[in-house]
Amino acid sequence: MSSTLCIVNGSVHDPANRIAGEPRTLFVRDGRIADAVAEPDRTIDARGMVVMPGGVDIHCHIAGPKVNLARKLQPEDHRRDPHPGTRFTRSGSGGIVPSTFATGYRYATLGYTTAMEAAVTPIGARHTLEELHDTPIIDKGFYVLLGNNIFLQQLLRDGRRSEFRQAVAWWINSTKAYTAKLVNPGGDEPWKGRRNSNVSDLDEKNDVFGISPRQIIDAFVEVANDAGFPHPPHIHCNNLGHSGNFRTTLETMKTAGDRRLHVAHIQFHSYAGEPGKNPGSAAREIADYVNAHPNITCDVGQVMFGKSTIMTADAPLAYMLRGIKKAKWINADTECESGCGILPFSYQEKVYVHALQWAIGLELFLMSADPWRIILSTDHPNGGSFQSYPKLIRLLMDRDFRKQEMQRVNRRAIARTTLPDLDREYSLNEIAIITRAGPARALGLRNKGHLGAGADADITIYDDHPDRERMFSAPRYVIKSGHMIIDNHEFCADFSGRMLHIAPEYDASIVDAVRPFFENYYSIEFDNYAVPDSYLHDHEVIPLRPATG
Amino acid sequence: MSENLRVVENATCTFCGCVCDDMILTVDDTQKRIVKAKNACVLGRAWFAEHTIEEAPAALMEGKPATIDAAVAEAARILVEARFPIAYGLSDTTCEAQRQAVAIMDMVRGNIDTTTSVCHGPSGIAFQGVGESTMTLGEVKNRADLVIYWGGNPAESHPRHFGRYAVTAKGMFTPNGKKDRTVVVIDVRRTPSVPAANIFVQLKPGKDFELLWALRVRVKGRPIHADIEEITGVPPATIEDLVQRMKGCRYGVLFFGMGLTMTRGRHFNSGALLALATDLNEFTHFVAKPVRGHGNVTGADNVMSWQTGYPFGVNFSRGYPRFNPGEFTTVDTLARGDADAAMIIASDPASNFPREATAHLRRIPVISLDPKATLTSGLARVAFRTATYGINTGGTVYRMDDVPITMRKAFDSPFPDDESILKAIREKVRELLLARTPHGARSAFELPLTA
C-alpha cells in the first residue's frame, strides 16, 4: 500500500527543472512525484533542509561474479566493519566490498537510490541478477561485457556487420543488461592466449581475429547509436593506468566522432608522460576535448586515499598492479567472453603516483565546463569506496578544505598539476547535477534525477550543514519509489528496488548463427544460456531513443 | 514401461560438481520416474534411475506423521527458542533455498555452515590467503595444452570431467582434443584416472606440500636439496621435467581434489598449489581450480559470500556475521556442545560426522529437510520430506567453476521443495520474533539473552 506524501519548506535542488535551491512543495502519490495531493497521509517539514532527487551512480562494481570473488577474498576487511541488522533490515558485512544487503543500505544512507553495476560477463548475468535481487532499496542495472566477445570479434573480422548488430541486441536481451560495456577491447586474447601479453595501440590488429581495438569500438558505437540505446557504449579504454595513455583516450573519443560515447573512470585514462616512466597530468587535454564535444559523457573515477580493491575485466592491468606488492591476486578467465583481475589495494598520500591520480581527478572535476557530462564516481571500489562520496563532495565544494588536504600529499605530484591554481568551488546545484541529474540524463533515465511531476519519487532530504561531508553522509529522510525508507536518520522499512534493463529488438534468425559457435566452444548448453524472466524481480524496461541515424 | 513417456532436453545433473546440463531425460509420467538419461555418466544414470517418489508423509514430528503447517510452526519455535541454533548442509539444494536459509539464521542470530567446511574448506581458506588464478571450464576445453590433476580421481568421482572439459574435449585452440594437450596425474596411488594421463607422478602420502614447494622453488630458478626424492618419493629429474612443461605450456591448468585438502597440511597444501599457479603467470598463462564435489556446493559458497561476506562457518549471534572456521564450523559447534538446536538441509551429518558431533546431534532438537529418509532425518524432531532438486524442481545451481545454471524440472513431486518449506519457516520465525519484541524496542533482534 503506497501512501501519499507532501514535503514543504525545503530548499529544492532540481537542476533538470531549473530549480536551484528554491522553496518548493513536493507531492508524492503512487510512487511518483505528483502535481498536487489533496490530503496527504504525511507532511514533512523540511525547513532548513536541502531536498534533492535520489543519487544515481553511473559506474560502480557492486554485484556479480567478480565482486563476489573480491568479497570472499577479504575476510580481514569485513571483520573491521560489521553491518548489524535491525528490525527492518538484514545484517551484513561492510568494508571496501560490502555484502549485498550492506551495499543497498549504505547507498541509501548516502541518499543514493540508483546504482549501475558496470561490468558483468554474459555467462555471469544470472549470478548478478541473483545478487542484485538481494541488494535492497536501490534501483539497479548492469552493463554487459561484450568488447572481448570472441563470437562478436569473428563477425567483425568477417565483415558481417548486420549480423554483429543483431547479435549485440540478442546478447543484451539474453542477459537483461542496460548497455554494452567494452573493457580494454582486444586485450583478452593476448592475455589468455599469448602468455599474458596485451594490446597497446588502437590500430594494432590481433593476430588471431585480425581486428583492432578501434574497429571494435567503432562497431559498438555504431550499433548503440543506431539502435538508440538509452546509454551509449560504456568504455574502459585501452592502456588504463599507463603513462601517456591520454593519447589513447583522445583517439578513442575521436573514433566515436560525433556519436554518443560514455568514457568510464576517465581519471585513470588522463596521464601524460612516456610509457614505463612516471606519469604526469593530462587533465587539461582530456577536459578540453570533453568540454568541446557534447556527444561525450564520462565519469571521473576519483581516487580517494585509503583502502580500495582493484576489480576489473582488464586482467593485464590487475596483473601489473599485482607486481607492486606481490600480495594476493585473483585472475578469472571466462570462456569466449572476458578476463578478470582482482587485488586488494590502497592509495597512499605520500606515494607520487597515487597523489597524482588524486589530483588529476580533482582537476578534471574543476576544469569541467559542463557538469552534466563529467559525473561523480570513484569507480567503486577501484578508486575508493562509494562511501567516500561525501568527502569527495566536500573536496569539490570547499576550497579551503581542498588546500588543506593538498598539504598532506606528495608535493612533487601536486607540483606537476594545476590543482593549486584551481579556485573553483562547486555549488550545491552543481553537486546535484554531477550526482543526480547528470548521470540520470547520461543513462537516458527520464524518470530519475529530477523532481518534476511523473518522476520516480526517489527523494533525499539533507540537513543544510556547512560541513558538506557531514551533510552528505547522513540524509535525514530518504524516500524510494514513494516509500519512506530512512525517517529522521533511522531505517523504517526495507524495499527491494527495481531492475532496470533494455530490450532492443533483434532478428530471431541470429540465434541460428550463434548456436553452432556455442555448441563448439562453450561448456554449457545454448538453450540454458539466455536468462529467463524469472530472474528479474520488480523490473522496468527502459525504452530506446528514436534513432539518431 | 507405460506409454506415457515424455522427453526433457537440456536437463541438469546435480550429482557432482560437473553439473552437466546436457541431459536428455525420458520421463515416465505414470510411474513417476526417469527411464533413460542420455549423456549421463555412470553416476548420473544411477542418480536419475534410482529417483522414485516414495510413499511417505511430507512431514514427521517425533517420528509421527504431521501436517506441514504444524511441522513448520514447530521448526520455527525450535529455532526462535534456541540460544545457539545452527544450520548446516545446503550444498545439495538450490540457491533460492540457500538464500532463505541464510535469512532465517540471520533473523534468529544463529550459526550457518555448509558442507564446504568438511570438503574444500581448506581451499576456501587458502583462497583468502593467496587468491587464485582461475577460469571457467570452457577455457580449459578451448585452450589448455597442459592439464594436471593433483590429489583427485575424476575418473571415478567426476566421470565426465575428462570428456566434457579437460582431457579429450576439443575446443577452439585444441581442435584435436587429447592430442593437443599433455595430461599429468599426481597422486599417492595409481588410481583409475591414471590411464587417461600421459605422465603419472607418484608421491609419498602426506608429502604434497613438500613437492609443491619444491616445484615453486624450481619455477623461481632456485636450487633444491638432493634429499627431495627421499622426502617426496619424486626424483629431481621428474620435478625438472614438470617445471619445464609448466613454464613452457601456453595455457596450463592445475585441478586439485580432496587428496590435497583433507590430508596433512590442508589449507597449506591448497595455498601452495594456488601460489604455484600464480607464480607460473610470470612465464605463461596458468590457472587452478578445486574439483568440487556436491552439485551446488559452489552455489552455497556464493550465496553465503554475497549475503554475509564469508563463504562458510558464519555466526550471527552478535547481530552481524562473523567468520571463524574451527569455531563456527559445524563439526566444532556440535562436538563442543555449543549448538542447542540444528536445522540440517539436504545433508546427512549423522552418517558421516565424528562420533562426538553425532552424539551431540542426538541430544538436541533437530529439524531436517531431505528428499530421502536418512540417519539424520531418523533422529530429527521435525523431518520434512522435500522434492529432489533438479529432478522435481527448477532453480539455480552453480557449477564448480562458478557458472550458474538454471535447472529444468523433469516431473512433479508430491513433496514441497526446500525453498517453500524454508520460506514458510522464515515467515513463522518473523511472526514469533515480532511477537517477542519488547515494548518500545526498535529491533526485534534486540532480545534478552534468556527467552
Write a brief caption for the model.
The complex is a heterodimer of chains A (549) and B (451). By secondary structure, chain A is of the alpha/beta class.
Secondary structure layout plus pairing:
The complex is a heterodimer of chains A (549) and B (451).
Chain A: E1 5-14, E2 19-29, E3 32-34, E4 42-45, E5 49-53, E6 55-60, H1 65-73, H2 75-78, E7 82-83, E8 92-93, H3 100-109, E9 112-120, H4 125-133, E10 139-145, H5 150-157, H6 161-175, E11 179-183, H7 188-193, H8 213-227, E12 234-236, H9 246-255, E13 261-263, E14 271-272, E15 280-281, H10 283-292, E16 296-299, E17 306-312, H11 315-325, E18 329-333, E19 341-347, H12 352-367, E20 374-375, H13 389-397, H14 399-406, H15 411-415, H16 428-443, E21 459-463, H17 468-473, E22 477-480, E23 483-487, E24 490-491, E25 499-501, H18 510-521, E26 539-541
Parallel strand pairs in A: 1-4, 1-5, 6-9, 9-10, 10-11, 11-12, 12-13, 13-16, 16-20, 25-26
Antiparallel strand pairs in A: 1-2, 2-3, 5-21, 7-8, 14-15, 17-19, 18-19, 21-22, 22-23, 23-24
Chain B: E1 5-11, E2 23-28, E3 33-38, H1 42-49, E4 59-61, E5 64-65, H2 68-81, E6 85-89, H3 95-107, E7 111-114, H4 121-130, E8 131-135, H5 137-143, E9 146-150, H6 154-157, H7 161-166, E10 182-187, E11 199-202, H8 208-219, H9 228-232, H10 236-248, E12 251-256, H11 258-261, H12 266-280, E13 285-290, H13 297-308, E14 314-315, E15 322-323, H14 330-335, E16 341-345, H15 349-352, H16 355-363, E17 366-370, H17 375-379, E18 382-385, E19 396-398, E20 404-406, H18 418-436
Parallel strand pairs in B: 6-7, 6-16, 9-10, 9-12, 10-11, 12-13, 16-17, 17-18
Antiparallel strand pairs in B: 1-2, 2-3, 4-5, 4-18, 7-14, 14-15, 19-20
Helix pairs in contact in B: 2-18, 3-13, 3-18, 4-12, 8-10, 8-12
